[in-house]
Write a structure and sequence with these properties.
heterodimer; A: mainly alpha; MetI-like fold; 2 domains; 11 helices; 0% strand; disordered C terminus; B: alpha/beta; 6-stranded mixed sheet; 9 helices; globular
């Protein structure tokens, strides 16, 4: 009897201590947030240039005037992002499959795929957009596209295809060898083992890094602006240089955030939900 | 003339790199027979089973299935594997598929069964092996013993000519071993021809028609279980059996 009473006393004491600790933690978090964020705000707001910055970067009128145009330009970014992403998903899967293949006949393709990954991951995306955007039309070959949006999209697809191929490849080689053994043991061919057993698991496993690359691509779509298309960043830039007010760029930045932040939350949820093993 | 053995292993030799794991193994499994393959870890039991299922290329010798050489380079390996069933120590279930889909995949993709037919057969087998109601679960929701029984059903679902069991209870908690051994007894009473690599000596004694002792890649001793297990002739076999915890029960 005494023992139970003593045990429940101990339990109450522990719970009280836990409560105290958690309250104290919350208080410290609140105070330190006020100090850090308040300090940063005070630093910006009391800086000598702040009145001017507020006028040139955060002007409500300039925002109102430029926003519809920037939004219209952003629509091009979104369309380009979606199309390039789809192309990247297919292209990179093919490259990854070639690179992980073992067949002797595919040796030259393996060589090409490896060279592709090395070269296109090694060139800055902005440079690639320049080279493709201005180089392909300069060839003056019949049938090749000359539209800067298409060429910019091609450059982005080539660049991201190389990155994403490596993500897929990492997923494929991470699947335990026993899975292939089991697939072959039930009588599947190598191709069927890949299709029904290895790839489904590999793709699930690389979901989070894949989404991470999507976010990156969504931002880099702005790089096609250097070829001339009127996308969000380009329009904001034109507005800014004609009015000497940089608020349109802030408007463009907010539009990008509207897409990338939800994508990032999706990555978090996917990343946390997937646990250790692909399901 | 009597029918040839279902499985016949003749002088099989296999090396990994420079290390020879099997040195000329000879073994036969006749129809409806269960042969228990015993021996220490690393003696080559798993390698031998993998060689029979053509998951490893052998260096020398031959394996015959129903009197037909299956280790010739010209033989269609996929077609041979479709006639055999292999169960792994670590189950190797497909984690992204449900229990039923694990069992059905081979029937649908390797044996050209209609999905409905494969599913009917799969459900019936799952029920027979005590897994009714678990069809839609994923492997990670099952205990080790249940997972291994699913793996046995997966290998058995195509009605293989022979089954190869690779230490199927070695990865299990002791209290889960019994249910898996029960499943193997069921296979045996159904007349399945089996080659069973195992550490369960009392089980080998009960179920096997013959026990073969593999030591350093060679079969040193073969015969009826009561003779090989109770009065082994070779000093290596005697030493191996003495070291086992359940030796006293034999």
């Amino acid at each position: 009897m005494n023992a139970t009473a003593a045990a429940s006393d101990r339990r109450a004491a522990r719970e009280a201590a836990r409560l105290r600790r958690s309250r104290r933690g919350q208080a410290i978090a609140a105070i330190s947030s006020v100090i850090v964020l308040g300090g940063l705000a005070a630093l910006v707001l009391t800086s000598p240039g702040w009145p001017e910055v507020r006028e040139t970067f955060f002007s409500w009128e300039a925002f109102r005037d430029s926003f519809p145009g920037v939004l219209e330009g952003f629509w091009l970014d979104v369309k380009l992002f979606v199309i390039v992403e789809l192309v990247v998903l297919v292209l990179s899967l093919v490259v990854a499959l070639v690179r992980t293949s073992k067949a002797a006949a595919l040796f030259p393709l393996r060589l090409l795929a490896a060279a592709y990954c090395d070269i296109f991951r090694g060139i800055p995306t902005i440079l690639l957009v320049y080279l493709v955007g201005f180089g392909i039309p300069a060839l003056q070959l019949e049938g090749l596209p000359t539209d800067p949006v298409v060429l910019g999209g091609v450059a982005l697809a080539l660049s991201y295809g190389a990155y994403v191929a490596e993500v897929y490849r990492a997923g494929i080689v991470s699947i335990h060898r026993g899975q292939r053994d089991a697939a072959l043991a039930i009588g599947l061919t190598e191709g069927q083992a890949l299709r029904y057993v290895i790839l489904p698991q590999a793709v699930r496993r690389v979901g989070p890094p894949l989404l991470n690359d999507f976010i990156s691509l969504q931002k880099d779509v702005a790089l096609v602006s250097i070829l001339g298309p009127q996308e969000a960043f380009r329009i904001a830039q034109i507005d800014a240089s004609s009015t000497f007010n940089y608020t349109p760029l802030i408007a463009a930045a907010m539009l990008y955030l509207c897409v990338t932040v939800p994508l990032a939350r999706l990555v978090d949820r996917f990343g946390l939900g997937i646990g250790g093993v692909a399901r | 003339m009597s029918a040839p053995p279902v499985l016949e292993i003749r002088g099989v030799t296999k090396a990994f790199g420079g290390r020879e794991v099997l040195h000329g193994v000879d073994l036969e499994v006749r129809e409806h027979q269960a042969v228990a393959l015993i021996g220490a870890s690393g003696s080559g039991k798993s390698t031998l089973l993998r060689c029979v299922d053509l998951l490893e290329d052998i260096d020398d010798g031959d394996v015959l299935l129903d009197g037909e050489v299956i280790t010739d380079p010209s033989v269609d390996t996929v077609a041979v594997r479709r006639r055999l069933g292999l169960v792994f120590q670590a189950y190797n279930l497909f984690p992204h598929l449900s229990v039923l889909d694990n069992v059905v995949l081979g029937g649908v993709r390797a044996h050209d069964l209609a999905r409905s037919e494969a599913e009917d057969r799969g459900r019936a087998l799952l029920e027979r092996f005590g897994l009714a109601g678990r069809e839609d679960d994923h492997p990670d929701e099952l205990s080790g013993g249940q997972q291994q029984r699913v793996a046995i059903v997966r290998a058995f679902a195509a009605y293989p000519r022979a089954m190869l069991l690779d230490e199927v209870t070695s990865a299990l908690d002791p209290e889960l071993v019994g249910e898996v051994l029960e499943a193997i007894r069921d296979l045996k009473s159904a007349g399945m021809t089996m080659l069973i690599a195992t550490h369960e000596m009392s089980f080998a004694r009960e179920v096997a028609d013959e026990v073969s002792f593999l030591h350093d890649g060679r079969i040193l001793e073969s015969g009826p279980p009561q003779r090989v297990l109770a009065s082994p002739q070779r000093p290596e076999t005697q030493r191996f059996l003495r070291r086992l915890p359940d030796a006293s029960r034999l």
